[in-house]
Every structure is written in structure tokens, then in C-alpha cells.
Amino acid sequence: ELEPSRVVLYAGSVDVRRAADDGSWTSTGDLVVRVGKLAERVLGEPSVDEVILLGILPERETGAELGARVRETNAGLAALALWMEGISFLPTFRAPLVNDAGNLSEAFTADGLHLNGKGYAMLADWLSPLLNGR
Predict the structure, then answer these.
(1) Which end is more exposed in the chain, N or C (fewer Cβ atoms within 10 Å of the end residue's Cβ)?
(2) Is the pTM of this model over 0.85?
């Protein structure tokens, strides 16, 4: 029944964080291609004019290796948004959600991985101008 013109998409976070059963990691390129295909499918819905890709967030204790993977993946997602028509990118790896050490700020997370109410309120503030077409 709903016919949204804009869809917010958060994808790739699990692939950035978890190695496959064989210990291999999904390459950033493969991950960006997968997210692009998903966004393309969403854009194929008749009412959808735009997909807003959210940047992947770090964890409360991210560490150097994961932090680098998250940053690299976010750079790939941002490039995808520049390349594909109908896709925007909202960077989330930034203050105040992310502290100077590159970790998810304790004030914005319930469990070290997921946002709490205050974190979602911040995200909503960032999304509002994009969703309202400003």
C-alpha cells in the first residue's frame, strides 16, 4: 500500500564485520557491488525515485583493522552514490556519533554496536533534509 519516493538503505555492515566460514573477508569492491545491486532493485520499484545509502557505523570498540575496513567501505559507497543515478550517500562515520578515536560514541549506543534512542534521533536529524528534499 505504501508508495515511498525515497528509501533509506543500511546495507553491508555484517559483511564488513564478519569473515566467511573459511576466514576470508568480502572485498570492499564486492561489497559495494552487492549494495549497488540491492539499491538498483529498490530503484526499480515504480514509486521509488531515490535511495539514500547510510554510511556504515563503527562499533564502540572498533579497533584499527575494522576501522580501516569501515572507512574503505564507506568511501566505496560514497563513490557508488556519485556514479549511480538516484542514489545519495549519507556519511555517518562522523562526530558526534563517532568519537575522535573512530569508535561509536558511548552516548549514542545501547550495546556497543546498535544505536540507542539518542543515536537514532541524531541520525534522523541528518536524514531529515534529504527526506524532505532540501
Answers:
(1) N
(2) yes
